[in-house]
Amino acid sequence: MEIERKYIIETPPADYPSYPFHQIEQAYLCTDPVVRIRRQDDTFYLTYKSKGLLAREEYNLPLTEKAYYHLRSKADGIILTKKRYLLPLAAEDKNPLQLTIELDIFSGVYEGLVLAEVEFPTEESAMDFVPPAWFGREVTFSGEYQNSRLSRGRDA
Question: In a 3-state reduction of DSSP, which class is residue 108?
Fold first, then answer.
């Protein structure tokens, strides 16, 4: 089960480039249900995601590089590219869990778009989350910035 909240970021922290990151390319074979392929650094996956905004089922299966590129040629829409920086969010009174901010800096068609996602162990902990002051508008419940929707273009 994937439980996450998502935010638009206008101004990320100045030190974000100093954190570890993954180079990600992903494409969609289907968006209803979501069937995605992803290259993350030198690893390849096929992912199925059920419907949902805050919480949904997610299954990841390994792919070979050859299978990934074969399926990529069959993908619909825009192939998304981004760097995902992993920023630790220290536990404190307002957020007692040690969490990680996944800061996505998009390139390509969505150059300039910056989103932050935070994953949680339970829906209750997700709803109790207090975002850092530098987070912008929350887009979890609108679905407008789900990657599967972005793959269909800005007017989708």
Answer: helix
The label of the residue with tokens 């030198």 reads 42
Q: Does the active-site annotation cover 85?
A: no
Catalytic residue among 7, 28, 85, 145: 28
> What one-character DSSP code corresponds to residue 124?
H
Let me know: does 3 contact 121? Beta carbons within 8 Å: yes
Q: Give which of 34, 33, 12 is closest to 82, Cα–Cα.
A: 12
CATH of the domain at 13: 2.40.320.10
CA distances from 19 to 4, 85, 127 (A): 21, 6, 26
Percent of the residues in the chain that have a pLDDT greater than 70, as a whole number: 98
Tell me how many domains the chain contains.
1
Task: Report how far Cα 53 is from the mean position of its chain's Cα atoms.
Answer: 12
Supply 93's token pair. Answer: 């009174």
0.90 exceeded by the pTM?
A: yes
pLDDT, one tens digit per residue, over 14-62 is 999 999 999 999 999 999 999 999 999 999 999 999 999 999 999 999 9
Establish whether the linkage from the previous residue to 131 is cis, with ω within 30° of 0: no
